[in-house]
Amino acid sequence: MRKKFAAKMTALAMSGLLAVSALAGCGNSGDPKGTTAAPGTQSGSQGETKGQTGGDEEVTLNFYAWLDEEGIFTKLAEAYKKDHPNVTINMNFVASADYETKLITAFSGGADIDCFAVASPPSLASYVAKNQVYELDELISSTKTDISGSQATIDATKIDGKIYSLPYKTSSWFVVYNKDVFDAAGVPYPDGDWTWEEYAEIAGKLTQGEGADKVYGSLNFQPTSMWWRVPANTKGAINPLEEDQLDAWLDAAEFCKKLSDDGYQPPYADRAGEAGADYTGAFLTGKYGMMYNGDWVIEMLNSAIADGEKCNYDIAPIPHWEGEKPMTVGAPATLQVAKNAKNPEAAFDFISFCTGAEGAKILLENDYFPAWTSDAIVKEYCEGKTAPEHIEYVVNQTNSSQVPCDPNYNTASNVVKEEVSLLLLGEQDRETTKKTITDRLASEVAQ
Amino acid sequence: MKKKQVASRALIIFLLVLVAFIMIMPFIWMVLGSVKMKSELFAVPLKWLPETPVWKNYTDVFEKVPFLQFYWNTAKVAVLATLGQVVTCALSAYAFSKLEFRGRDVLFMFYLATMMIPGQVTMVPQYELMNHLNLLNNHWTLILLRWFSPFGVFLLRQFFISIPDSLVEAARIDGAREVKIFTTVICPLAKPAFATLTTLTFLNAWNEFMGPLIFLNEKSKFTLQMGIRYFQQMFGTEYTLIMASTTMSLIPILLIYMLAQKYFIEGIAASGIKG
Amino acid sequence: MDAAVQVKVKRRKLNSYKKAQRNTAILFLIPNFLGFLIFIVYPVLKSLYISFFNWDGLGNAEFIGIQNYVRLFQDSTFRISFWNNIHYTLVTVPLSIFLGILIALLMNTKIKGIQVFRVIYFLPQITSMVAIGIVWTTVLANYGPVNQFLMTFGMENPPQWLSSTQWALISVEIVSIWRSMGYNAVILLAGLQGINAELYEAAKIDGAGVFKRFTKVTIPMLSPTIFLCLVMQMIGSFQVFDTIMAMTQGGPGRATNVLTYYIYQRAFVDWRFGYASAVAYVLFAIILVFTLIQFIGQRKWVNY
Predict the structure, then answer these.
(1) Contacts of C75 in chain A (CB under 8 A)
(2) Considering the domain boundaries, does residue C213 fall inside one?
(3) Count of domains forming chain B
(4) What angle do CA B23, B28, B34 make, to 5 degrees?
(5) Contact at 8 Å (CB) between A57 and A86?
(6) What CATH number has the domain bearing residue C212?
(7) Which of A381, A396, B15, B129 pairs with B263 at a CA distance of 20 to 30 A?
(8) Is the domain of C199 the same as that of C108?
(9) Are residues C35 and C82 both part of a single domain?
(10) Matching InterPro entries, A to Z (chain C) (predicted)?
(11) What percent of chain B lies above the pLDDT cut of 70?
(12) Mind listing the pLDDT tens digit for each residue in A8-48?
């Protein structure tokens, strides 16, 4: 009993709230396994030096993220440990395709999890709905943590008005185009304001040749992602559980299908069966004029070019629909403290470091576009890249959330993905697709 | 007669080659793909050979992933899992095939029944159990889960059954104890079965994916299959690196199999099972 | 000694003999059985228990009796997965065993260099399904080597193997057979090697030809091993997962969705662990029925 109390007090002290030197030496509770007792623990006495967790009590944090992020979080953790030598961070990285499986199993099986990353707001919403996420408002105000740099994203990921997560990076969509293909067709490069109709028209002009030598104006990609919905996203339709938004999604699917039917884009079937997952590989063949894609593709193309591939590319803003305002979409990736974290204060301190100004600097150095932005960061991001020429489009488009904070989104989008794939293959018409989707959503989405 | 023999021999060789071609074609594609540029792999029209072999794909794998460590981890798990499984399952299989006791067949059916529950739903309870036993992030989890495999029991029981009961009875009449019958009568006769179970268990353990994914946390403990997964990332799959790493994961096991099949199958054929 | 006493003694002897056998059996069983109880049986029973709950995997469990079981029969995806799975089983199991026997026979011939073939035939089994499945998707791509091959032989519109509902399931089945026939062949080869050569000699002396020796000696002697393959393949075919995960993820549409993939999605996408467990137990019942049929049927053809 006393130990538990001590644990609580120590934890509070560590967050710089209380300086309770009387408790010094009492607890080793920061360590989830309770094995290592820090000699001469003076919790709280250093609380003021950093204004954050400053205690030298041994703390172990179990952190989960997916493999793509291994490099960046390893660096963030190293930087964090420089100022917090008492903190050990156990990094758990899982391949992205298996990440949720592992995380859910770990939560269900009662593993020690202190903080974790998720790739998009619907996953965040799922974990919040399942009561696995620590609510942060109180900690933010009590530690006076500065969140101004990513305020907009934080507001967009609030659930029931409460903050459950801090974003560390955002993404944004734009059009990548192959300059050589434009030159060969004598078409001027896209630059600035354009519509999806114009995109289709230009795709038509770029399309040349027949058979094996055919050059397509537009490239589509793998059926496991839902790239085809992006045109709908650009007019704010992000949740297929809303009927009008579902209609917009189906419009977008038909837009993509028409590009293929007109011969401006490979048939959907050609990209099916996982072969389409290697869109950079396809783009690098030089047989595609344009593709819409996100900021991650820049790093992929640049490193392929560094490895000897040839590709003369640039980027343009994402198109918009006639009569709509230009707007791109993106999804923030966020960090959370687990509800059952042994030491939520310490976990919070770590994630606020990663998502704050200091973390942003490290993210930037590693080619990430941090969620924490400022004019200086935007400038540095753009100046840090040799290609593409118009890198500024990554950051200066109006950006809106691509996915809703809806715990049922993942289930719903799976249903939509399955049915729309039949539409795109030409095996199912729009009427049937919509009806099947509506029926399935009614029966398969948990009420 | 002679002509007929030649013809049937020719037919057999033709079939052997045909089947071999079907079996090996994807592997040739994979090995060639592992030295291609990204843009060559899905080139239309298709290219079988890369313009210049990109050996860099292999060094890239080692750069991005501690592949040697993964080899070692996988080998350790596979060897220990196989040894334990063969021993415990052989003992059980002997009881199920050559000893009489009440409820034998019911118990055996129970073993079989547990194989019919898909792993997707036992995964969470298993994880919970391992958490309680403090075995998470530990290779022993993977090893222990294989030791008690109902499959091993089933496989060996089927083989033991085909060994004539009369041999066992004869030994019993001679006054041999069951342990001795097991080690001196059954085990030598069941060499092909042991060879089979060893090979299959080793392969399954080597190639296992879900278990390591769920139970292991630290990179230093990961196995090969998780290493291959490194190249299937959120924003795209690196097929050339997947092919390179898969090829590398295959080489040691291929060598082992080549040695093993010579030792096992031929050894069995030579020593014969006539006894 | 009178007759009654004799019978008594005999019975006592028999009883003590039985007892001794039982005790030995326990000793032989115990190492495996203890671990089996803890690591296999406990999780299996726990999932049965879960199947009666509405459980999201994270604490909030609500007992709902057999509602999960009732609900699944109203789910169109369950029905589709079920029929896909039956199709998959009926195609892959007989073919992979039939071809496995043929390959085992080929491997059992005494031809120079047979070792090379033995290694090649086993190659598909050596590789992990996850990895080789990815390779197969590139092999079966619309402009991949298979279609290239078909086109050089004059086929103008080769099948869209993985991207049409018509072919996707068949493609997955082909890959499964490709992989499992080698596996069966290895098990069956061990069985073949175990057949006493004297039996063949005897049959030869009796004037049996090649075919007759095959049906009268090989098949009966091999039948316990064939039975093993049959049961294992069938259980495996109802639990096919890696192939689907690596190659199609159930698509296009729901054309290759099978029961375990359905279970996986319900558990790890929808977080409906109770429901997923209920589906697993329905799957269990299906497999059990098929297995029992085989166990009853085996008396007719398996030679012990």
Answers:
(1) 443-444
(2) yes
(3) 1
(4) 140
(5) yes
(6) 1.10.3720.10
(7) B15
(8) yes
(9) no
(10) ABC_transporter_permease, MetI-like, MetI-like_sf
(11) 94
(12) 433 433 333 333 333 333 333 333 333 333 333 333 333 33
**What integer is the mean pLDDT of A178-185?**
95
- Does C56 map to a domain? no
Contact indicator for A76, B91 with CB cutoff of 8 Å:
no
Residue-averaged pLDDT of chain A: 83
Quick one: tokens of C290? 């098929």
Instruction: Find the closest chain B residue to C122 by CA distance.
Output: B23
User: What DSSP state is assigned to residue B36?
Assistant: S
Encoded tokens for C282: 């329905």
Q: Are residues C16 and C141 in the same domain?
A: no
Contact of A206 with A404, CB cutoff 8 Å: no
Using an 8 Å Cβ cutoff, are B154 and C230 in contact?
A: no
For CA atoms B17, B18, B20, B26, give the dihedral sign: positive
Q: Are residues C235 and C285 located together in one domain of the fold?
A: yes
Chain C residues with CB under 8 Å of B30 CB are 132, 135
pLDDT for C241 beyond 70: yes
> Are residues C26 and C90 both part of a single domain?
no
Q: With beta carbons less than 8 A apart as the criterion, state whether B244 and B63 touch.
A: no
CA distance B35 to A432: 45
Which among C134, C251, C268 has the least Cβ separation from residue A104? Answer: C268
For C29, the domain range is: 3-50
Task: State the CATH number of the domain containing residue B208.
Answer: 1.10.3720.10
Per-residue pLDDT of A356-392, as tens digits, reads 999 999 998 888 889 998 888 888 888 877 788 888 8
One domain, residues C263 and C297: yes
Task: Kindly tell me the burial class for residue C208, based on how many C-beta atoms sit within 10 Å of its own C-beta (0-12, 13-18, 19 or more).
Answer: middle
Q: Which of A153-157, B121-125, C81-85 has the highest mean pLDDT?
A: C81-85
Of the residues A67, A107, A169, the best mutation for testing chain B's interface (the one with the most B CB atoms within 10 Å of its CB) is A67
What is the rounded distance in angstroms from the CA atom of residue C237 to the CA atom of residue C216?
30
Q: Do A414 and C265 touch (CB under 8 A)?
A: yes
Residues in chain B with CB shorter than 8 Å from the CB of C183 are 200
Residue B32, pLDDT above cutoff 50: yes
A98-107, A298-307, B215-224, C278-287: segment of lowest average pLDDT: A298-307
Let me know if residue B236 belongs to a domain.
no
Query: Domain for residue B36, yes or no?
Result: no
Q: Are residues C133 and C272 in the same domain?
A: yes
In a domain, B54, yes or no: no
How large is the ipTM?
A: 0.84
User: Coil, helix or strand for C240?
Assistant: coil
| pLDDT of A236 above 70 | yes
**Chain B CB within 8 Å of residue A273 CB:** no
B113 lies in some domain: yes
Q: What is the pLDDT of residue A84?
A: 93
Instruction: Please give the tally of structural domains in chain C.
Output: 2
Letter string b/e over residues A330-361, b meaning 16 or more CB atoms within 10 A of that residue's CB: bbbbbbbbbbbbbbbbbbbbbbbbbbbebbbb
CATH node for A59-170+332-373:
3.40.190.10
CA distance A352 to A368: 17
∠ Cα A236 A241 A242 (to 5°) = 55
- C32 and B273 within 8 Å at the Cβ level: the answer is no
The answer to whether A119 faces chain B, any CB pair under 8 Å, is yes
Mean per-residue pLDDT of chain B: 86
Phi-psi region of A5 (alpha: psi -120 to 50; beta: other; left: phi over 0): alpha
H-helix or E-strand containing A90?
A: strand A87-94
Tell me the per-residue pLDDT of C54-88, one tens digit each, with 9 for 90 and over: 888 776 788 998 989 998 888 899 999 999 999 99
- Judge whether C60 lies within some domain: no
As its CATH architecture, domain A173-330+399-444 has: 3-Layer(aba) Sandwich (3.40)
SS3 state of residue B71? helix
